[in-house]
Every structure is written in C-alpha cells, then in structure tokens.
Amino acid sequence: MAGKPKATAAGLVVTALIAVVVVIQLRDDPPNARTTPPAPSPSASPTPSPSASTQQARPARPGPVLAVKIDNAAPARPHTGLDAADVIYVERVEAGITRFMAVFSSRLPDVVGPVRSARETDLELLKQFDDPVLAYSGAQGKLKPFIRDAPLRAMSADDFPGMYFRGTDRPVPHNLYLRTDDVLDKAPELATPQNLGFERGPAPAGGTAQTSREVRFPAARYRFDWSATRLRWLVSMDGRPGTLADGSPLAPASVIVQEVDIRKGSFGDRWGNNSPFTDTVGTGKATVLRDGKAYDARWSRETAGDLTEFTTPSGETMTFPEGQIWVVYVPKA
C-alpha cells in the first residue's frame, strides 16, 4: 500500500502557474484552497506528484461510501484512483461540460483526483446511499446551506484543507487531490460499505451486438469501445483515450446510458452560466452496455431515498458483470 503523500516545495511552482489558467476552468475552484500540502516531518521524504504515484488500490476498511466530485476537463487528465471506484456517474454541468461523481465502496485508493466542486444534482443523487461522505473542492455560495442540510457528511477542501493537497504536474485548479486515509480518520463511525443497487450476474437473454457507443454533450464527447481481450469498455473523452496516471486505461465492465430529465437548475456560476439539474428520481429508459452487447432497460427510483433499480423490458432485474459501472446521464429523447 502506498504511503500518504507528504509536502514538497513544488507548491511555489503551482503559484506561478495560476496566471495562465483559462478563466472558464477556474469558475468552481474554492477561493481559499491550499496550494501546498502540510509541511513534512524532518524524517519524511518528498512525495511525487499524483501522476507518478501508485494506482494500486487496497481493500476498503469497514466504513462509509465515499463520493468524490472529479474534474474531467482536458487539463485534469490523466486521473488518479478512479480505477478503484465502484460507480462513476457522468453529469452535465455549466456551459455544456461534464463532471464525474466517483463512488467508492469495495476498494479505496490512497489518493484520488483531481477534485472539483459540488453541484445541486449531487445532493439528490447521493440520498440513495446511507450517510455517505462527499469530498469536493468547494461549492457555489448559495448552494452551501443545502449541502449542510443534506443527509451526508460534507468534507470540502474549504472546511478540511488538511485532507487535500496540490499536485505539481498541472496547473490550478486541475491539481487538487484527496487523501482517503485522512477522510476515514475523520469518519470512522460511518456505515460499512453499502449496497449500491446493482444486481450482479450473467447477461440476460437477447441484446444487440454493439462494440462502440458514443455519447455527446454540448461541450463534451464520450466513446465506449468494447475490448474483447480485456472484457472491458475502453473510455475515450473528446477523441482521446481516457487513462490513469500510470498509463492504464479507464475501462469499466459495463456502461449505463440513462435517460433523465435535465433542466435549468437553481444555481449558477459567477459568470451567469446556469448549472443544470439532473433529476435522478422517477422512471425512464436506459441502455446497458455489457459483454460487447447493448441491452434495452428501464430504470426506476421512486424517491430520493431509494436505490435506482434497473429492469429488462419484461420486468426482470437487469444484471451487471463484476467490475466498475459507469452511469452516463443523458436527456430523455
């Protein structure tokens, strides 16, 4: 298991890079996020950037589901720790771009990121889990009271700066990382790993052979290509392969393209862009990609406190292979 990251003097370099960051990518970074990790003890050795750190995950301790809001803009790639997530949700945010919500239950990486800010959609989405921890960089000011009142343990970089550190290989705001050991040290009493609501098992009958699926947003594009050798769907974002910091691919075992209502939200950024709200309560259609095939499905979530259920057109429980699941929220047709 990799040790906890320690401080480096490279935080000074990060400060110098701030001036060159594109303005639109700064919109949701917390104004007072720390730019260097805490000073190491005299015996500590320097810590490499997360891009050079190990990607090996360890079995999770009994503890909470950890939900981390992840930056997936081009400067934030490659990612760290996402291979250990049980589920990755893809949500539309301001200006047609997307963000990830990575949910960890069965495994935890030592470090995960880059981390970005919470959205209104996250609060409803996470109500289906029992007392989750939400790790995020910050939030729009008017949203913060709603986060405080939500049934979750909020651990932002604003309120828990010691849990986070800045990497040295990319500019602010795309270099904020979370130490998961520090989270669990703060929340040892939370629930044990949760049932995330996905039934595992062999593929249902039927399905249509499909080895590639593309999903487009106004300012983001995803492609999922089936690898018969890896038995995984290889993820591309904006025409480039999605990878981890060690060069290995982002490769879920299954992908759900879930049709939902995406409407104008109650909040926006400082430049006047509305943050759309993705309604994950209700019913609708979905397409499940697994084993090189596409399956028609239905989803249902009666209340925000319920897990999302997926069924076949005949009403049987939809099954998923073992491994990571991506849920991509798209507008209802």
Structure description:
The structure is a single chain. The chain is built from four helices and 23 strands. The chain is mainly beta and 333 residues long. It has a domain at 199-331: YerB-like (YerB-like fold), CATH 3.50.90.10. It is globular and about 50 Å long. It starts with 10 loop residues before the first helix and ends with a strand. Residues 37-49 have a biased composition (Pro residues).
Could you outline the blueprint of secondary structure elements for this entry?
Blueprint: H1 11-17, E1 58-59, E2 66-70, E3 87-92, E4 98-104, E5 107-108, E6 111-112, H2 120-126, E7 133-136, H3 144-149, E8 153-156, E9 164-166, E10 176-179, H4 180-186, E11 199-200, E12 208-209, E13 212-217, E14 220-227, E15 232-237, E16 240-241, E17 254-268, E18 274-279, E19 282-290, E20 293-301, E21 309-311, E22 319-320, E23 325-331
Parallel strand pairs: 2-7, 3-23, 7-8, 11-22, 17-23
Antiparallel strand pairs: 1-5, 2-4, 3-4, 6-10, 9-10, 12-20, 13-14, 14-15, 15-16, 17-18, 17-19, 19-20, 20-21
